[in-house]
Amino acid sequence: MSTEPKIALVTGASRGLGRNTAEHLAARGSDVILTYRSGQAEAEAVVAAIEAQGRKAIALRLDTTDTAAFPGFVAELSAALREIWNRDSFDFLVNNAGIGIHKPFADTTEAEFDQLMNVHVRGVFFLTQRLLPLIADGGRIVMLSSGLARFALPGYAAYGAMKGAVEVLARYLARELGPRKITVNTVAPGAIETDFGGGAVRDNPELNRIIAAQTALGRVGLPDDIGGAISSLLMGEFGWLTAQRIEVSGGQQI
């Protein structure tokens, strides 16, 4: 059995759930390649935190909406894998990078729709496509969806539709990558105390209370709930699990 450390690529990992996931993966023994769009200092802080756990980590800049830049990113990633790990592949891909736009359906503009589409669907589709030659056979992919693809809250029609597309894409990837023994699953968080949506769930006590009352486990989610679930899915005994949507919401609106 190989004793090589696992290597995970987590997009959008300079903050929020991406950072939490990267740190959980490191705690379980994985090295981490994280991407950031503009927060270089934040990304370097994540690298330092992972290195403090005794794992290797690097941060690479990537705008997941800029598909024209993907070939250059893949070349940079390939060079880093050879130089730092003496490998030509990595094991885990977490398509985490994303944004949220809270806008009533009637008021959502084409520009806002396109922005969400480019980040959550187009970028995820073509980045994963470009990365396929670098993902090791037997690797694992996690796509990030949302509870909002199952239950409907006013103001998230476009965002929820994009996450629904991600869930369908994940099933197709699971089918097509099955011959390479690559699993593909979707993790769908419920409401989490992060800065998503301006930090409303975290910072608005009344909203926090309302969501907690609608959740079977009686509270809103914390970043560790999601980072722990994703790292368990990647590093645990889940090699026979693929094409599944796993909602990590504490039973929100069931």
Mind sketching the topology for me?
Elements: E1 7-10, H1 16-27, E2 31-36, H2 40-52, E3 57-61, H3 70-85, E4 90-95, H4 110-131, E5 135-144, H5 157-177, E6 183-189, H6 200-203, H7 205-213, H8 223-235, E7 245-248
Parallel strand pairs: 1-2, 1-4, 2-3, 4-5, 5-6, 6-7
Helix pairs in contact: 1-2, 1-8, 4-5
The percent range for helix content is 40-55%
Shape: globular
Question: What fold name stands as the CATH topology?
Answer: Rossmann fold
**Residue ranges: pLDDT <50 for 5 or more in a row?**
none
Q: Roughly how many Å is the radius of gyration?
A: 18 Å
The N- and C-terminal alpha carbons lie at a distance of: 42 Å
| Oligomeric state of shown chains | single chain
Q: State the CATH superfamily name.
A: NAD(P)-binding Rossmann-like Domain
Can you walk me through this structure?
With 254 residues, the chain is α/β, with parallel strands linked by helices. It has one domain (7-247): 3-Layer(aba) Sandwich (Rossmann fold), CATH 3.40.50.720. It is built from eight helices and seven strands, in the order E-H-E-H-E-H-E-H-E-H-E-H-H-H-E. It has a seven-stranded parallel β-sheet, with helices on both faces. Helix 2 links the parallel strand 2 (31-36) and strand 3 (57-61). The longest helix is centred in the middle third of the chain and has 22 residues, at 110-131. The radius of gyration is 18 Å and the shape is globular. It starts with 6 loop residues before the first strand and ends in a 6-residue tail after the last strand.
